[in-house]
Amino acid sequence: MQIRIDHLPVEAATGESLLELVRRLDLDTDSLKTRPIAADIAGEVFTLNYVPVREKEHGDAPTTFRMRKAIRKGGGEVRLIRYEESRGRAIYERTIIYIFFLAMRELFPQAHAKVNFAIGPSLDISVETDPPFTPDDLEAVRDKMRAIVEADYPLVRRRLDIDEAIQLFEQDGQTDKVRLLKWRQFTYFDVYLHGDYADYFYGEMLPSTGYAKVFDLQFRPGGLFLLRPSIADADIATRYVYMPNLSKVFAQSDRWAELMHCRCVADLNDMVENGSVRELIRVNEALHERRFAEIATEIVNRGARAVLIAGPSSSGKTTSANRVATQLRVLGKTPILLSLDDYYIDRSLITPDENGEIDYEHIDMIDVKQFNTDLEALLNGERVEIPHFDFKTGARQMLGHFVQLKEDAMLIIEGLHGLNPKLLTPAIDKKLIFKLYVSALTTLNLDDHNRIPTTDVRLLRRMVRDYETRGATIERTLGMWDSVKRGEQRWIFPYQESADAIMNTSLVYELCVLKKHIYPLLRDVDSASPCYDEVISIIKFLNYISDAAVEDEIPPTSILREFVGGNTFYR
């Protein structure tokens, strides 16, 4: 079979894998920055262990039909995926998690380890064992992981009958996977086997353990942090950075999940099936309301006169601003809501860069000088006319919107750059400013080894909202998402730890509601769409989740209402 890998023609012989073809073309390297780790064929992601041409299908191997179809669709073009891509980083993460659990199995077979969430550049992993996990144990795990990497074990999937897979995990004591698989809608299941250890990871893996040389471990009481390669330099592991504010909010979310008896997708599905999901919604929303009340109290006790709110896309910033405003009203304050967007510089005054491009998310797109002039005047009690930015004309207008902070009044200002230190000049008294970071930091996972990235949940929120309120197609939202994430990496995440408070807007029940909205739209995406692979990946994930017709239970001021509709703040 004649194919082209990164535009280089090559004849694929029977039984030859993509990895062998990559090496034959001399495209493999020792540097993770340049090393191919997977393949993109017509928009779909494939492991480099795939064999394009087989003599015959083997019963224990995943079918190659999907790959042959993709090769035909893509005209024989294969594009190699590297770590710099978000898909490449996800593949690498799954593999080092697999290596970690394989090391734990060999060293501490009776221990129970669980991947909890990502916190900055680290993966938080808890380890329950008797006696408790120690720093010396961590050193042993690190050494064993390095030995597994050095051994370069191939990572090849084996297809099992679903009942066989359930039996295998039952015998191995992996009850979390047994519970999840009982919700699987297909008669087969793919696993990775090494000796007597079987595991599953949602998505493609590296071709072998030898590809995962870059990682590190950091001890913490009750577990550890697994450090991924640095985005800036993939050939070194990222440095551990203690993030007390994010750690605190994740710990709080863990307590909430335990209180609600909902820590994984199987728990949520059980609640949907037995009807207790309605009580789950009530408790989850009550916990949110209490947290908003706590934040409002912190703001008042601080003596702040202005609240700056920032957060990544689809975190529920607008609803959060309104709910904080409501709680401030309870405390006797008069909140005034403003948007940083109204201080955008007129588009006609912006000069493109040397590539002819404009980064509209850059802080220089904000008229920082005018914003500070107005904010200083407002804090001094003066009456100020607030501009309005018209996105249709790309220009600011003065429409007679005057604001003045009287004795009990308080500003609530929402915007992308709310936490950026460049936003406020030295003239502003920082004691009068309260910074609030808002994000959907989900701690609900598929199982103990497969976490649900917070980015994935925010993407579901955005797809639903964009379709419901803006008439945007799934393809349009997906096409913008990489750019959105790049902006977050540059302008939001570096400042999240500097916030005075963090509000986790994730709702443990939201996936069962979001699925009801998004699943039919995903199924309607044509296979010829350039984002079809991403759509299929989302569908496969959502297949594990039971949808629920419970929107009558969701309060009209819920964060979720910002995305599925019915939010009374916008009437």
How would you describe this protein?
- This protein is α/β, with parallel strands linked by helices and 571 residues long.
- The radius of gyration is 25 Å and the shape is globular.
- It is built from 16 helices and 19 strands.
- A hairpin with a 2-residue loop joins strand 1 and strand 2.
- Helix content is 38%, strand content 18%.
- It has a five-stranded mixed sheet. A five-stranded parallel sheet has the order 14-17-13-18-19.
Summarize the structure.
Helices cover 38% and strands 18% of the residues.
Shape: globular
Measured as a percent range, the helix fraction is 25-40%
How many helical stretches?
A: 16
Q: Kindly report the spatial arrangement of strands forming the biggest sheet.
A: 2-1-5-3-4
Q: Give the DSSP E fraction (strand runs of 2 or more residues).
A: 15-25%
Task: Characterize the main sheet.
Answer: 5 strands, mixed
Oligomeric assembly = single chain
Low-confidence stretches: 59-63
Overall residue-averaged pLDDT value: 93
First-last Cα distance: 60 Å
Strand-pairing-aware structural class = alpha/beta
Number of strands: 19
Based on CA atoms alone, the radius of gyration comes out at: 25 Å
